[in-house]
């Protein structure tokens, strides 16, 4: 792979970035989804007040866009009602052809430097719980930060842009409402702007359940994960903590995930 150039997104990049996002997330649907909506999210984010144009960055290789990261402003509201402005990134997209080559990590690290230069404190995301800690993310719970409804879980993570950036900041996290307003109907209509593509059929969690012993199967069923893709939202740490999950169960989970092309747990993972 040649040298990757990271630069700010321009108006002329919009369609290519949305098509790239579509390709990167096409197989991230759930049982309930007919089609991915991440490319629609990118399109709509640019029109929100929360959008940070200086942090909409593309990775370019030989004149072709192979990666993209987009940021929006978010906030943590403490018990006194005081608001603390933070950042959220996503979608972070890398062309399937160029995944596992460090492009996603390069986009993150470059964007962190830009964000720090703009005066932002920290980044909060919902992401792969066994990957993002490798680049410095920590569970938001460690900072006393919860979701807007007071919950916390391993995929909810934060990254301080400088040491002590979150000292004295805790409370409930709020993201721009556009993230919650996407519909499958709108995504299907928006997708007509792009070349026709065969619908993705998710791999159901049953292919894993049938390989596990009954007691372990019940524990995985309790997670309410419908597909192997969404199994990736559960960290190895949290699964190991389930009462009837042993080393053999973890090995089976990793084997099945690997068979279907999904990294999970301590398996090397890069996007």
Helicity range of the residues? 25-40%
Per the CATH scheme, the topology name of the largest domain is Aminopeptidase
Largest sheet: 6 strands, mixed
Element string (H = helix, E = strand) = EHHEEEHEEEEEHHHHHH
Radius of gyration based on Cα positions: 19 Å
End-to-end separation in angstroms reads 15 Å
Q: What is the domain total for the residues? A: 2
CATH class of the largest domain: Alpha Beta
Number of helices: 9
What is the averaged pLDDT score?
Answer: 93
Q: From the 3D coordinates, which CATH architecture of the largest domain would you assign?
A: 3-Layer(aba) Sandwich
Percent in strands: 15-25%
Number of strands: 9
User: pLDDT under 50 segments (min length 5)?
Assistant: none
Bulk shape: globular
Class derived from helix and strand content: alpha+beta
Write out the CATH superfamily name of the largest domain.
Answer: Gcn5-related N-acetyltransferase (GNAT)
Q: How are the elements arranged and paired?
A:
Layout: E1 5-8, H1 14-25, H2 38-45, E2 57-61, E3 64-77, E4 83-94, H3 103-117, E5 122-126, E6 138-139, E7 145-146, E8 156-160, E9 171-174, H4 184-191, H5 206-209, H6 214-221, H7 228-231, H8 236-240, H9 247-259
Parallel strand pairs: 7-9
Antiparallel strand pairs: 1-2, 2-3, 3-4, 3-9, 5-8, 6-8
Helix pairs in contact: 1-2
């Amino acid at each position: 792979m040649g040298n990757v150039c990271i630069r700010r997104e321009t108006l002329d990049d919009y369609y290519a970035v949305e098509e790239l996002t579509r390709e990167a997330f096409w197989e991230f649907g759930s049982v309930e989804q007919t089609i991915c909506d991440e490319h629609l999210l990118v399109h709509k984010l640019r029109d929100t007040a929360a959008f940070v144009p200086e942090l909409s960055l593309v990775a370019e290789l030989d004149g072709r866009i192979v990666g993209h990261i987009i940021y929006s402003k978010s906030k943590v509201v403490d018990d006194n009602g005081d608001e603390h402005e933070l950042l959220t990134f996503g979608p972070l997209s890398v062309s399937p052809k160029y995944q596992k080559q460090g492009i996603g990590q390069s986009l993150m690290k470059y964007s962190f430097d830009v964000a720090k230069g703009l005066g932002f404190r920290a980044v909060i995301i919902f992401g792969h719980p066994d990957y993002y800690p490798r680049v410095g993310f920590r569970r938001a719970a460690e900072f006393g930060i919860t979701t807007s409804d007071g919950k916390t879980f391993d995929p909810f993570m934060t990254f301080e842009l400088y040491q002590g950036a979150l000292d004295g900041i805790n409370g409930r996290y709020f993201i721009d409402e556009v993230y919650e307003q996407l519909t499958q109907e709108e995504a299907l209509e928006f997708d007509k702007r792009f070349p026709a593509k065969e619908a993705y059929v998710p791999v159901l969690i049953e292919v894993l359940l049938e390989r596990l012993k009954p007691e372990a199967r019940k524990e995985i069923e309790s997670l309410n994960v419908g597909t192997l893709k969404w199994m990736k939202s559960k960290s190895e740490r949290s699964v190991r903590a389930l009462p009837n999950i042993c080393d053999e169960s973890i090995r089976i989970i990793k084997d099945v995930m690997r068979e279907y092309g999904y990294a999970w747990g301590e398996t090397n993972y890069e996007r």
